[in-house]
Every structure is written in structure tokens, then in C-alpha cells.
Design brief:
InterPro entries: RelE/ParE_toxin, RelE/ParE_toxin_dom_sf, TA_system_RelE-like_toxin. The chain has 2 helices and 5 strands; from the N terminus they run βααββββ. It is α+β, with helices and mostly antiparallel strands and 92 residues long. The chain has a single domain, classed as RelE-like (YaeB-like fold, 2-Layer Sandwich). A 5-stranded mixed beta sheet has the order 1-5-4-3-2. A hairpin with a 3-residue loop joins strand 4 and strand 5.
């Protein structure tokens, strides 16, 4: 059974910031990047084990295919919560 997908306020803000930043120069590309991130997150509903464990207890990370972004998330029996979306060039 697929798990519910949730976005923390921080993750939702991350997606808005990514969209806004890329859209300043290339609006169509911005929509494609965010759509690719959302597709990667959607896969977690059925395959929450797709990510790898981080140093933080319970937090997993998934690299977004073809994009330089990582999605940090928690997997629970009933839901996957996206905590943060970060470009790979950023440390924090």
C-alpha cells in the first residue's frame, strides 16, 4: 500500500525557492526541475527504501535523477515526510 506523501513547511519553502531562483533566468526550466523533484518524491510513496541513511537518526536522502538535488525525508509506516530539498553544491 502506498504511503501518504507529506511536505514539511521547510521542504515546501525549498521548492518555492528553487522555482523562484531558476525562473529568474529560465522559467520553463524551473518548472521542469521542480516537476522532476516532485516525481522523485512520488516514487517514495511506494518505495520509501529508495534513499540511503544519513547521519541523522531516521532521516534518509534520495538523489533526484538527472538533477543536482537531494531530498531528505522520514519514512514512517503510513507516510513519507519530505523534510528538506537541497542542491548538491550547498553544505547546509
Amino acid at each position: 500500500m502506498a504511503r501518504q506523501l507529506l511536505f514539511s513547511p521547510r521542504a515546501a519553502a525549498d521548492l518555492r525557492a528553487i522555482l523562484d531562483f531558476i525562473a529568474r533566468e529560465r522559467p520553463p526550466a524551473a518548472r521542469r526541475v521542480v516537476a522532476d523533484i516532485e516525481r522523485a518524491v512520488a516514487i517514495l510513496a511506494d518505495h520509501p527504501e529508495s534513499g540511503r541513511q544519513t547521519d541523522a537518526p531516521g532521516v534518509l536522502v534520495l538523489s533526484v535523477p538527472r538533477r543536482s538535488f537531494r531530498v531528505f525525508y522520514l519514512s514512517r509506516p503510513d507516510a513519507v515526510t519530505t523534510l528538506h530539498v537541497r542542491h548538491t553544491s550547498r553544505r547546509h
